[in-house]
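WARN retry 2 of 3 for item q-0093 after timeout on previous attempt; input resubmitted unchanged.
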Amino acid sequence: MKQEMLAMILAGGQGSRLGVFTKRIAKPAVSFGGKYRIIDFVLSNCSNSGIDTVGVLTQYRPRVLNSHIGMGSHWDLDRINGGVYILPPYMSEKEGHWYNGTANAIYKNINFIDDYDPEYVLILSGDHIYKMDYSEMLSFHKEKNAEVTIAVIEVPWDEANRFGIMNTEEDKKIYEFEEKPQEPKSNLASMGVYIFNWKTLKSYFLRGEKTNECFDDFGHDVIPAMLKDGIPMYAYPFKGYWRDVGTIESLWEANMDLIKNPDAVDLSDSNWRIYTNTMDLPPQYIGKKANVKESLIADGCSVLGTVENTVLSHKVDVGEGSVITNSVIMPNVTIGKNVVIEKAMIAEGAVIKDNAVIKDDLGAISVISEYEVVTPEEEEKVNA
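OK item q-0093 returned
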């Protein structure tokens, strides 16, 4: 069935900078905000934007991610015509098994896209936290008669050299793309959200087949080639909250933003809900002597101690006398009695024994691995 625009979500990244949190799962499947996984935000954006055909391109350790998405019913993406599709890499006659880059992943799914014969293809990353109405971006794309539109967000000038920067004319037409420039000419950073006219993008893939030109990556190959060829390309300015949670620091900060600046990503907004694959768990239990301040506490938690400025994911137990501050606790963590945890990220299934202290004297984020057992004698080992 022909679609005006379908979405392709790049969700196969290893996320090595997240360390222990992506040892067993893909980055988009990492727990976030107590009850969500990172990919819930882009899937919810698609659903809320009226996009009902979505391909999710997986590669690295996809089992948890595949199970979480399932048939897409939690995002209203279980459709007869359309819906959500998991698209793992596969062996082809021309190329090897794995996706070789962001654009190569799309190229290897040309047949899937052609089945829906779309006018436009929306390319998304599965590891960003933000809310965006993609239908508004499509309207901008049409108004500009663009063949490519790239969502951009203004970043602080002193951080612009960390991003792919779009240099534009006054009407937002892009004339130059610079990848992490030492002396940036603008502070319009690419968000990794693209709308392509499908015929245009497909023509470059077919050109690459004939000429052996490399079109494996959008930022490195496709975008520069299109700019060189004079393809009409525009920057769509986005004014809302957006964060790439690709490092331990940024993941911790994004979780803290939910507490310190809840209006930035309003999880209670009934007009733009963030959907997820929910679990059937009992309500949270807050004990008589417990003290909870400015925190997110998911279902299935039992809190007998003090929790402040902290995210507790589902099924976390906090024992009597324990004090947890400025931390992110992943699901199924057991915290004993008289434990002190300050500015830490604790991975799923960890066990923190009675009287343990997890704190870095220099203020760095302490990290505990999945299913790690921390005893008082081992506390110095984890504060690195």
